[in-house]
């Protein structure tokens, strides 16, 4: 089975600064999707950004961008101009394009934004 | 924006009791999922459901678990005889895998925290 690793259980960032959350994964497949989800306290998981493995261009959504390194199996999330509302648990997830619909999640990174 | 909803937000039960966790997926979605997260551990896949039948399930999803879509809107997870190790956050998700829309993204509910005493 695929494994997803988030090596940073907790991170903190000063408001308005930039922070990068790490994610690595292990797969033998060449076609897959990668996701970052955000889970604020006591609220539902929200999709932040997604990346298709066949695309070389890194996905960007406003202040959120990824650094997708397919050869290194790395998928980090960069949050620019951090805001207080960015404080949440962030989960990295993998989904195969060919062998089923289930997501494989990392253990999450808890992000604190310091005013 | 449409959301996946789950009830209850917190369920406390005695070991050996049956529980039913409820989910209302996004209305035009066709695939439904349950995941669980034991405290401090990864979110783990349990089961996916399509066209009124299970399409995939993990080894966690044993005979104690069942899923059902009893009507056109609800999607339920039943645990027949709860064990202490079933204590976890249970997340429901749905996705729309038709070709016309982004086919790979799952939308998650807020979760139900199940505590088994």
Summary tags:
heterodimer; A: 115 residues; mainly beta; 6-stranded mixed β-sheet; globular; B: 117 residues; 4-stranded antiparallel β-sheet
Brief digest:
The complex is a heterodimer of chains A (115) and B (117). By secondary structure, chain A is an all-beta fold.
Can you describe this structure?
The complex is a heterodimer of chains A (115) and B (117). With 115 residues, chain A is mainly β. Chain A has strands at residues 3-5, 10-14, 19-21, 24-26, 32-39, 46-52, 60-61, 64-69, 74-79, 88-96, 103-105, 109-114. Chain A is globular and about 45 Å long. The mean pLDDT of chain A is 93. Chain B is mainly beta and 117 residues long. Chain B has strands at residues 5-7, 10-13, 19-24, 31-37, 43-50, 53-57, 65-68, 75-79, 88-95, 107-108, 112-116. In chain B, the strands form two sheets. In chain B, strands 2, 4, 5, 6, 9, 10 and 11 form a seven-stranded mixed beta sheet that branches. A four-stranded antiparallel beta sheet of chain B has the order 1-3-8-7, with no helix packed on it. In chain B, a hairpin with a 5-residue loop joins strand 4 and strand 5. Classes of the chains: A mainly beta (115), B mainly beta (117). Chain A binds chain B through residues 4, 33, 35, 37, 42-47, 50, 52, 91, 93, 95, 97, 100-108, and chain B through 3-4, 31, 33, 35, 40-45, 48, 55-56, 58, 91, 93, 95, 97, 102, 104-111.
């Amino acid at each position: 089975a695929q494994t997803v690793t988030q090596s940073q259980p907790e991170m903190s960032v000063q408001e308005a600064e930039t922070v990068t959350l790490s994610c690595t994964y292990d797969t033998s497949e060449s076609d897959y999707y990668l996701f970052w989800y955000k889970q604020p306290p006591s609220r539902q998981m929200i999709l932040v950004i997604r990346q298709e493995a066949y695309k070389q261009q890194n996905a960007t959504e406003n202040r959120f961008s990824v650094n997708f390194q397919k050869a290194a199996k790395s998928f980090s999330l960069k949050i620019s101009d951090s805001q207080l509302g960015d404080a949440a648990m962030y989960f990295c997830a993998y989904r195969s394009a060919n062998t089923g619909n289930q997501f494989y999640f990392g253990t999450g990174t808890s992000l604190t934004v310091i005013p | 924006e449409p959301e996946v909803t789950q009830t209850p937000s917190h369920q406390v039960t005695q070991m050996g009791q049956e529980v039913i966790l409820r989910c209302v997926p996004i209305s035009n979605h066709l695939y439904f999922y349950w995941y669980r997260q034991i405290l401090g551990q990864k979110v783990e896949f349990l089961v996916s459901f399509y066209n009124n039948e299970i399409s995939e399930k993990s080894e966690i999803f044993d005979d104690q678990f069942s899923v059902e879509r009893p009507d056109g809107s609800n999607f339920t997870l039943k645990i027949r005889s709860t064990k202490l190790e079933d204590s976890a956050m249970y997340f429901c998700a749905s996705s729309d895998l038709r070709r016309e829309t982004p086919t790979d993204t799952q939308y998650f509910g807020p979760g139900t925290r199940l505590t088994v005493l």
